[in-house]
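Comment thread on ticket #2218

A.B. wrote:
> Attaching the input chain for the structure job we discussed in standup.
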Amino acid sequence: MAMATAAWCAVTMANEDWLPQNDGEAIPAPVSATELIAEALSRLPQEPLTMEGDIVMRRPRGIPVRKLKFKVEITWGATPPAAVYEIYDEEDGGKLIETVTATAGKTPTLVRTLTEARTPAEPPEWNERIQGTDVTWLDATMSFLWWDNPVLSGEASVQGRTCDRLDLFPPVPVPDCSAVRIWLDRDVKLLLQAEEYNLKGDLNRKLWVRSVKKINGRWMVRNIEVESRGTRLRTLLHVTDVRESSLP
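C.D. wrote:
> Ran it. Output below, let me know if you need it in another format.
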C-alpha cells in the first residue's frame, strides 16, 4: 500500500478523494513493463515514513466482525526496501499482537515477533491473511511491485481511469500463488487494483483502491478494500495518519 511525508492534518494536504481527470494530451501506452514498474517505484516516497490506520473486516451489510489497528515504519528508499508493521487488537485494549518486518526486492523476506515481548515466531507466508482478515502481507507491503520480470498484458478502465495491466510472478514460493495481476494508473502510475491467482489460474483474492489523497505533490492510497474468494466478507484497510518517521 504508497504515502508521502506530512501528517494527514497538514495544511499541504489536498482534499481530493479520487484522482482528477487528465485534461492534457493522451498519455501513450508503455512499451516496457520493466520501465513502467521502475517509474511507479520512483514515485513512491523515498524518505522514512510512519503510517497508522485501521483494518476492519465486515459482513456484506457492513457489520464489523474484526477490528485491528496498525502502525508501520516504511523505508522504501532503503536497499533493500523495507517496512516494519505492528498489528494491534482494538477489541482487546489495543494490545500489540505481532510485529512483522518485510523486506522487498529479489529475495523478499518476512520476520515475525509476538506481543510486547517481541518473542521470535515462525515467519508468515506472504499471502497469509493478517489475523484472519482478508488483507495479506502481500497487500499490506505491496512487495509484488518489486518482483522481477513483469509482463504487460493489456489495458483497462478502473473507476474511469485508463490503467495498464501487468502480470507479476513471485521470485520465491508463495503457497498456492502463481501470479499477481495489477492495474497501474497510466497518468500517475498509482496502483488501483490487484488480483492474486492460485496454481490452477483461478482468482484467489481481489484488491481495490477506494480513495486516494494528494500529499506534497504525490498521489497516495488512503483506503483499500480486499475480498477473498469463497467468503462473504470484505476487509477495509484505512490509513488515518502519515508523518515523517522518528527513526534515524
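A.B. wrote:
> Thanks. Noting for the ticket: Confidence is low (pLDDT under 50) at residues 1-16.
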